[in-house]
Amino acid sequence: MAIQKTSLSRETLGEAAYRYLFQGFLNKELVPGTRLLMDELAEQMGISRTPVREALQRLEREGVIEPHGGRGYVVCETTTDELDHRYEAREAIEGYAVRRAATFEAEARAQLVAEYETLLTRPQTTAEEVFLANRDVHRMIVRALDNTYLVESFDLLWNRVLTSDIWARMLDNDDVVGSFDREHRPLFDAIASGDADHAHKIMLTHIHSGRSLHQI
């Protein structure tokens, strides 16, 4: 197993180990069913087992991997039912969030639109960048409610699709940023309009469209 290495200099070792694995999932170097051995990963990264253990335990909490053997884990398989349940949970969280966001004062709604415009300037040239852009555009709406529990639930749901191949497939589109804007612009137009019911409807349609991209 060969995973592109990441710099450990500007992060804590635990965070760097997590990012190392995070990139492996998105680059399809770590696919469902892959075994992850703590000692082997520590050797590959040139660090001790402790930060690797921290990263693995975090990924286990997020439902991306599960214990397998004494010091090992395996990347989780995802069933159709599990994927459906995740998207149903997204509808509950993000549908609620966008409905609330559309009721904000005009200035706050304009701020969300401005954040979206800034996000559009970010590159989307790798599977990791595609995943992060898609996650963050939804996360900014949930985060705007200033509810830590909702954000934590959102993060758990999104990180569980790290091993999906949809992020790499999105890169096949020559106009990936343009497609991103076409898919997400209606959400922010709806928020800006102040029409909560319309915003909720647009979000559910968008989430249903995302579910259809998965090939299971």
Automatic annotation (TrEMBL):
<dbReference type="InterPro" id="IPR008920">
    <property type="entry name" value="TF_FadR/GntR_C"/>
</dbReference>
<dbReference type="InterPro" id="IPR011711">
    <property type="entry name" value="GntR_C"/>
</dbReference>
<dbReference type="InterPro" id="IPR036390">
    <property type="entry name" value="WH_DNA-bd_sf"/>
</dbReference>
<keyword id="KW-0805">Transcription regulation</keyword>
<keyword id="KW-0238">DNA-binding</keyword>
<feature type="domain" description="HTH gntR-type">
    <location>
        <begin position="11"/>
        <end position="78"/>
    </location>
</feature>
<dbReference type="InterPro" id="IPR000524">
    <property type="entry name" value="Tscrpt_reg_HTH_GntR"/>
</dbReference>
<dbReference type="InterPro" id="IPR036388">
    <property type="entry name" value="WH-like_DNA-bd_sf"/>
</dbReference>
<protein>
    <submittedName>
        <fullName>GntR family transcriptional regulator</fullName>
    </submittedName>
</protein>
<keyword id="KW-0804">Transcription</keyword>
<dbReference type="InterPro" id="IPR000485">
    <property type="entry name" value="AsnC-type_HTH_dom"/>
</dbReference>
<dbReference type="Pfam" id="PF00392">
    <property type="entry name" value="GntR"/>
</dbReference>
<dbReference type="Pfam" id="PF07729">
    <property type="entry name" value="FCD"/>
</dbReference>
